[in-house]
Sequence to fold (190 residues):
Amino acid sequence: AVAGVLVIAAAVGYTLQVSPERGVRAELTTSAPRGPDREVQVTARFSPAEATRDANWLVALGWQGQTTMALEELERVGDGVYRTADPVPAGGTWKTLLRVHRDDSLLVVPVYLPADPAIPVGEVPLERRVTREAVYDHELLQREVKDDVSPGLPVLAYATVGVIVLIFLGVLGWALARLARGFAREPARR
Fold:
């Protein structure tokens, strides 16, 4: 039971580590926007092209629009060149970006992000042709995070989650040990 809990803890801990690649850029080319959500086809030429080689997945992701979410896999059309099979929304309240997951790196390239005065952040405009830096996904997905927050608050939040995980693993280990003892005491049935 203890070995099982340690294996689970190690697997969870290993998968939480991230090491985003640096220096990745994408030249984005979009079709003319159409429809109320300004849907566009997106073609992306990643540089260096190796940043997409053997990727776990490459997708266009749109959220916070009229529907719940838009998710389109990118089709490979050349070395480091990908495009959306169907148009993706890129206007209004939609937030649209490309996500590249490879090994322990998760990068995003913004296609369109509206201005948000509540945070406050400016718009990342939809452009017909532009080259943008790929950044670690948390930089864009959590762009509302404030810089002036007490440094102890994130540590406290992560520590709380860590304690909850440890409690969960402890209960799981206790349950497995109890289950194992139950099987050991059970007489053999014919």
In short: The longest strand covers residues 69-78. The two ends are 28 Å apart (CA to CA). The helical segments are 2-16, 137-141, 152-185. The first helix runs from residue 2 to 16.
